[in-house]
Design a protein that fits this description.
single chain; about 140 residues; about 30% helix; Cytidine Deaminase, domain 2; alpha+beta; binds tetrahydrodeoxyuridine
Amino acid sequence: MVMTSLAEAVLEDLLATAREAAEKSYSPYSSFKVGAALRLTNGEIVTGTNVENVSYGLTICAERAAVVQAVSRFGPEIRINAVAIANLNNAASPPCGACRQVLAEFTEPNAPVAFPLAESLRVMPFAEIMPFSTELKLK
Ligand code: THU
């Protein structure tokens, strides 16, 4: 990636951290190694990787693992202002719908989300990959 701004340099660092996290993947069933790195508004970086299960549906994606880790370490007030997702399989890996829904709870609408798509990197504001996520309100 050609770095043209501080924002891109920060995202590039976050992607490198996500790739590092993917090295820890427990993925004996798919061999698909995913890592996620979240930048929090408190300045901390938190990572996660996918953890599979022989009962396939119990698999936890990297993004959700990272969110759970962030709340466990820093508490319920966390806010996420950047997300990077990487995999070690040279494949596309946009966050799945379940992970978008879980990220929605803590992620700023304008937070950039970087993920590999069709052999190139995509960066999109969270609100564009998860429209209407702030509209669901319980009364
Ligand atoms: N996976 C993730 O961890 N994140 C994604 O964004 C897409 C899919 C995992 C789940 C499963 O362990 C493997 O990748 C194949 O779907």
